[in-house]
Design a protein that fits this description.
The chain is α/β, with parallel strands linked by helices and 287 residues long. The protein is 49% helix and 12% strand. The protein has 13 helices and eight strands. Helix 2 packs parallel to helix 4, helix 8 runs parallel beside helix 9 and helix 9 packs parallel to helix 10.
Length: 287
Protein backbone atom coordinates (compact mmCIF):
# COMPACT_ATOMS: atom_id res chain seq x y z
CA UNK A 1 0.00 0.00 0.00
CA UNK A 2 1.27 3.47 -0.91
CA UNK A 3 1.05 5.87 2.03
CA UNK A 4 2.59 8.90 0.31
CA UNK A 5 -0.67 10.86 0.22
CA UNK A 6 -1.13 10.52 3.99
CA UNK A 7 2.46 11.69 4.46
CA UNK A 8 1.97 14.69 2.18
CA UNK A 9 -1.17 15.63 4.11
CA UNK A 10 0.83 15.69 7.34
CA UNK A 11 3.66 17.61 5.70
CA UNK A 12 1.12 20.28 4.79
CA UNK A 13 0.22 20.58 8.47
CA UNK A 14 3.87 20.99 9.48
CA UNK A 15 4.29 23.59 6.73
CA UNK A 16 1.16 25.50 7.77
CA UNK A 17 0.36 28.04 10.45
CA UNK A 18 -2.09 26.17 12.68
CA UNK A 19 -1.34 23.89 15.63
CA UNK A 20 -3.37 20.66 15.67
CA UNK A 21 -3.69 17.74 18.05
CA UNK A 22 -3.77 14.16 16.77
CA UNK A 23 -6.02 11.40 18.02
CA UNK A 24 -4.25 9.01 20.38
CA UNK A 25 -4.97 5.61 18.82
CA UNK A 26 -3.85 2.12 19.74
CA UNK A 27 -5.42 -0.39 17.34
CA UNK A 28 -7.35 -0.53 14.05
CA UNK A 29 -10.74 -0.07 15.70
CA UNK A 30 -9.69 3.00 17.69
CA UNK A 31 -8.23 4.48 14.50
CA UNK A 32 -11.55 3.92 12.71
CA UNK A 33 -13.43 5.59 15.58
CA UNK A 34 -11.06 8.58 15.44
CA UNK A 35 -11.65 8.92 11.70
CA UNK A 36 -15.41 8.69 12.18
CA UNK A 37 -15.41 11.88 14.26
CA UNK A 38 -13.21 13.77 11.82
CA UNK A 39 -9.58 13.20 12.77
CA UNK A 40 -7.08 13.05 9.92
CA UNK A 41 -3.96 12.71 12.10
CA UNK A 42 -3.30 9.93 14.60
CA UNK A 43 -0.58 9.28 17.17
CA UNK A 44 0.68 5.92 18.42
CA UNK A 45 2.93 6.48 21.42
CA UNK A 46 5.43 3.93 22.65
CA UNK A 47 3.78 3.95 26.06
CA UNK A 48 0.35 3.30 24.56
CA UNK A 49 1.69 0.49 22.40
CA UNK A 50 3.33 -1.15 25.41
CA UNK A 51 0.18 -0.75 27.53
CA UNK A 52 -2.21 -2.14 24.93
CA UNK A 53 -0.03 -4.74 23.20
CA UNK A 54 1.66 -6.22 26.28
CA UNK A 55 -0.29 -4.77 29.22
CA UNK A 56 3.15 -3.60 30.35
CA UNK A 57 4.52 -0.22 31.46
CA UNK A 58 6.58 2.04 29.24
CA UNK A 59 9.97 0.53 30.05
CA UNK A 60 11.16 -0.41 26.54
CA UNK A 61 10.09 -4.04 26.83
CA UNK A 62 8.11 -3.82 23.59
CA UNK A 63 10.13 -4.93 20.57
CA UNK A 64 10.42 -3.18 17.22
CA UNK A 65 8.68 -6.12 15.53
CA UNK A 66 5.71 -5.91 17.88
CA UNK A 67 5.49 -2.14 17.45
CA UNK A 68 5.75 -2.27 13.65
CA UNK A 69 3.14 -5.04 13.48
CA UNK A 70 0.68 -2.91 15.43
CA UNK A 71 1.38 0.07 13.15
CA UNK A 72 0.81 -2.15 10.13
CA UNK A 73 -2.55 -3.33 11.47
CA UNK A 74 -3.64 0.26 12.14
CA UNK A 75 -2.62 1.47 8.70
CA UNK A 76 -4.26 -1.47 6.95
CA UNK A 77 -7.59 -0.29 8.37
CA UNK A 78 -7.07 3.45 8.44
CA UNK A 79 -6.42 6.50 6.27
CA UNK A 80 -4.98 8.50 9.17
CA UNK A 81 -1.66 10.24 8.82
CA UNK A 82 0.02 8.37 11.66
CA UNK A 83 2.76 9.85 13.84
CA UNK A 84 4.64 7.30 15.94
CA UNK A 85 7.01 7.54 18.85
CA UNK A 86 9.90 5.23 17.92
CA UNK A 87 11.61 5.78 21.29
CA UNK A 88 15.41 5.58 20.95
CA UNK A 89 15.21 3.71 17.65
CA UNK A 90 15.52 0.37 19.47
CA UNK A 91 19.28 0.55 19.79
CA UNK A 92 22.21 2.33 18.18
CA UNK A 93 22.36 4.21 14.88
CA UNK A 94 22.28 1.00 12.84
CA UNK A 95 19.20 -0.15 14.74
CA UNK A 96 17.66 3.25 13.97
CA UNK A 97 18.07 2.53 10.26
CA UNK A 98 16.21 -0.76 10.68
CA UNK A 99 13.53 1.04 12.72
CA UNK A 100 12.94 3.61 9.98
CA UNK A 101 12.81 0.86 7.36
CA UNK A 102 10.25 -1.20 9.29
CA UNK A 103 8.02 1.69 10.33
CA UNK A 104 8.05 3.33 6.93
CA UNK A 105 7.11 0.01 5.34
CA UNK A 106 4.32 -0.33 7.93
CA UNK A 107 2.82 2.97 6.77
CA UNK A 108 3.76 5.71 9.24
CA UNK A 109 3.68 9.31 8.10
CA UNK A 110 6.11 10.52 10.76
CA UNK A 111 8.37 8.99 13.40
CA UNK A 112 10.44 10.46 16.19
CA UNK A 113 13.80 9.33 17.56
CA UNK A 114 14.62 10.59 21.04
CA UNK A 115 17.77 11.46 22.97
CA UNK A 116 16.84 9.89 26.31
CA UNK A 117 18.99 7.07 27.66
CA UNK A 118 16.78 4.01 27.01
CA UNK A 119 16.25 1.52 28.49
CA UNK A 120 17.21 2.74 31.95
CA UNK A 121 20.83 1.83 32.68
CA UNK A 122 21.82 -0.44 35.56
CA UNK A 123 21.85 1.58 38.77
CA UNK A 124 20.13 4.61 37.29
CA UNK A 125 18.17 6.42 40.04
CA UNK A 126 14.43 6.02 39.62
CA UNK A 127 12.89 9.00 37.87
CA UNK A 128 16.25 10.44 36.87
CA UNK A 129 16.29 11.62 33.27
CA UNK A 130 19.49 11.11 31.35
CA UNK A 131 20.35 12.15 27.81
CA UNK A 132 22.71 10.51 25.36
CA UNK A 133 25.52 12.69 24.00
CA UNK A 134 24.82 15.12 21.19
CA UNK A 135 27.32 13.24 19.00
CA UNK A 136 25.51 9.93 19.48
CA UNK A 137 22.14 11.51 18.76
CA UNK A 138 23.50 13.21 15.64
CA UNK A 139 24.66 9.82 14.40
CA UNK A 140 21.21 8.36 15.02
CA UNK A 141 19.39 11.16 13.22
CA UNK A 142 21.74 11.11 10.24
CA UNK A 143 21.16 7.36 10.03
CA UNK A 144 17.38 7.85 10.21
CA UNK A 145 17.41 10.39 7.37
CA UNK A 146 19.66 8.15 5.27
CA UNK A 147 17.39 5.13 5.79
CA UNK A 148 14.24 6.91 4.64
CA UNK A 149 12.95 5.64 1.30
CA UNK A 150 9.95 7.96 0.74
CA UNK A 151 11.03 11.61 0.92
CA UNK A 152 7.52 12.43 2.16
CA UNK A 153 8.10 10.52 5.41
CA UNK A 154 8.73 12.94 8.27
CA UNK A 155 11.65 12.39 10.65
CA UNK A 156 11.45 14.19 13.99
CA UNK A 157 14.40 14.72 16.30
CA UNK A 158 12.94 14.39 19.78
CA UNK A 159 14.63 15.89 22.82
CA UNK A 160 13.87 15.74 26.52
CA UNK A 161 16.55 18.34 27.26
CA UNK A 162 14.06 20.79 28.77
CA UNK A 163 13.49 18.28 31.57
CA UNK A 164 17.16 18.19 32.63
CA UNK A 165 18.87 21.22 31.04
CA UNK A 166 18.17 24.91 30.54
CA UNK A 167 16.69 26.48 27.42
CA UNK A 168 20.02 27.61 25.85
CA UNK A 169 21.46 24.08 26.02
CA UNK A 170 18.19 22.68 24.68
CA UNK A 171 18.41 25.11 21.78
CA UNK A 172 21.99 24.02 21.11
CA UNK A 173 20.89 20.39 20.93
CA UNK A 174 18.00 21.24 18.66
CA UNK A 175 20.30 23.14 16.29
CA UNK A 176 22.62 20.13 16.08
CA UNK A 177 19.66 17.86 15.34
CA UNK A 178 18.29 20.24 12.70
CA UNK A 179 21.65 20.15 10.92
CA UNK A 180 21.18 16.40 10.41
CA UNK A 181 18.36 16.99 7.94
CA UNK A 182 15.38 16.15 10.15
CA UNK A 183 12.03 17.70 9.24
CA UNK A 184 10.88 18.85 12.68
CA UNK A 185 11.85 18.99 16.35
CA UNK A 186 9.79 17.20 19.00
CA UNK A 187 10.03 18.91 22.40
CA UNK A 188 9.00 17.29 25.67
CA UNK A 189 9.03 18.98 29.05
CA UNK A 190 7.83 22.30 27.62
CA UNK A 191 6.68 24.81 30.23
CA UNK A 192 6.13 27.91 28.13
CA UNK A 193 5.57 29.13 24.58
CA UNK A 194 8.84 31.08 24.86
CA UNK A 195 10.78 27.81 24.98
CA UNK A 196 9.04 26.63 21.83
CA UNK A 197 9.73 29.96 20.14
CA UNK A 198 13.42 29.83 21.03
CA UNK A 199 13.85 26.44 19.37
CA UNK A 200 11.79 27.46 16.36
CA UNK A 201 13.83 30.62 15.80
CA UNK A 202 17.13 28.78 16.17
CA UNK A 203 16.28 25.87 13.86
CA UNK A 204 13.65 27.31 11.50
CA UNK A 205 11.93 23.94 11.77
CA UNK A 206 8.32 23.24 12.79
CA UNK A 207 7.90 22.01 16.35
CA UNK A 208 5.88 19.19 17.86
CA UNK A 209 5.10 19.60 21.55
CA UNK A 210 4.41 16.87 24.06
CA UNK A 211 3.84 16.82 27.83
CA UNK A 212 2.99 20.53 27.96
CA UNK A 213 1.02 22.21 30.77
CA UNK A 214 -2.73 22.57 30.28
CA UNK A 215 -2.32 26.34 30.27
CA UNK A 216 -0.45 26.19 26.95
CA UNK A 217 -3.16 26.76 24.36
CA UNK A 218 -3.11 25.78 20.69
CA UNK A 219 -3.05 29.45 19.68
CA UNK A 220 0.03 30.09 21.84
CA UNK A 221 1.80 27.08 20.37
CA UNK A 222 0.92 28.05 16.81
CA UNK A 223 2.27 31.57 17.26
CA UNK A 224 5.49 30.13 18.69
CA UNK A 225 6.03 27.78 15.75
CA UNK A 226 4.47 24.53 16.97
CA UNK A 227 2.32 22.61 14.50
CA UNK A 228 1.43 19.56 16.60
CA UNK A 229 0.43 19.59 20.28
CA UNK A 230 -0.12 16.29 22.04
CA UNK A 231 -2.97 16.13 24.54
CA UNK A 232 -2.20 12.87 26.31
CA UNK A 233 -3.74 9.45 25.90
CA UNK A 234 -7.16 9.81 27.48
CA UNK A 235 -8.89 7.53 24.93
CA UNK A 236 -6.95 4.53 26.21
CA UNK A 237 -7.78 5.35 29.82
CA UNK A 238 -11.42 5.95 28.85
CA UNK A 239 -11.58 2.56 27.15
CA UNK A 240 -10.17 0.87 30.26
CA UNK A 241 -12.75 2.58 32.48
CA UNK A 242 -15.60 1.62 30.13
CA UNK A 243 -14.40 -2.00 29.99
CA UNK A 244 -14.11 -2.24 33.77
CA UNK A 245 -17.56 -0.78 34.34
CA UNK A 246 -19.13 -3.05 31.74
CA UNK A 247 -17.41 -6.17 33.02
CA UNK A 248 -18.34 -5.30 36.61
CA UNK A 249 -21.96 -4.78 35.65
CA UNK A 250 -22.22 -8.12 33.84
CA UNK A 251 -20.15 -10.07 36.38
CA UNK A 252 -22.35 -8.72 39.15
CA UNK A 253 -25.46 -10.09 37.48
CA UNK A 254 -26.55 -6.97 35.65
CA UNK A 255 -28.63 -7.38 32.51
CA UNK A 256 -27.01 -6.70 29.12
CA UNK A 257 -30.05 -4.61 28.20
CA UNK A 258 -29.18 -2.16 30.96
CA UNK A 259 -26.05 -1.19 29.01
CA UNK A 260 -27.91 -0.03 25.91
CA UNK A 261 -27.22 3.66 26.43
CA UNK A 262 -23.56 3.10 27.31
CA UNK A 263 -22.41 1.02 24.34
CA UNK A 264 -22.11 1.44 20.59
CA UNK A 265 -25.13 0.24 18.68
CA UNK A 266 -25.00 -2.73 16.34
CA UNK A 267 -25.29 -0.27 13.46
CA UNK A 268 -22.33 1.75 14.68
CA UNK A 269 -20.21 -1.37 15.13
CA UNK A 270 -21.15 -2.64 11.69
CA UNK A 271 -20.05 0.66 10.12
CA UNK A 272 -16.72 0.61 11.95
CA UNK A 273 -15.87 -2.90 10.73
CA UNK A 274 -17.02 -2.29 7.13
CA UNK A 275 -19.89 -4.73 7.53
CA UNK A 276 -21.69 -3.67 4.36
CA UNK A 277 -18.60 -4.26 2.25
CA UNK A 278 -18.14 -7.73 3.69
CA UNK A 279 -21.78 -8.59 3.03
CA UNK A 280 -21.31 -7.49 -0.59
CA UNK A 281 -18.17 -9.62 -0.92
CA UNK A 282 -19.93 -12.62 0.60
CA UNK A 283 -22.66 -12.41 -2.04
CA UNK A 284 -20.20 -11.79 -4.85
CA UNK A 285 -17.49 -14.30 -4.08
CA UNK A 286 -18.84 -17.07 -1.81
CA UNK A 287 -20.32 -19.67 -4.15
Amino acid sequence: MNHTEQRKRLRAVFAGTRCLSPASVYDPLSARVAESVGYEIGMLAGSVASNTTLAAPDLIVLTLTEFADQVRRIMRASELSLIVDADHGYGNALNVMRTVEELEHAGVSALSIEDTVLPARFGQPEGAGELISVNEMVGKLKAAVAARKDPSTIILGRTAALKVEDTPRTVARAKAYAACGVDAIFLTGVESADQVRAVREATRLPIMVGSAPASLMHEDCAAAGARILLQGHQPVAAAVKALRETYAHLHGGGAPADLKDKIASAKEMDALVNGEAYKKWQKEFLR
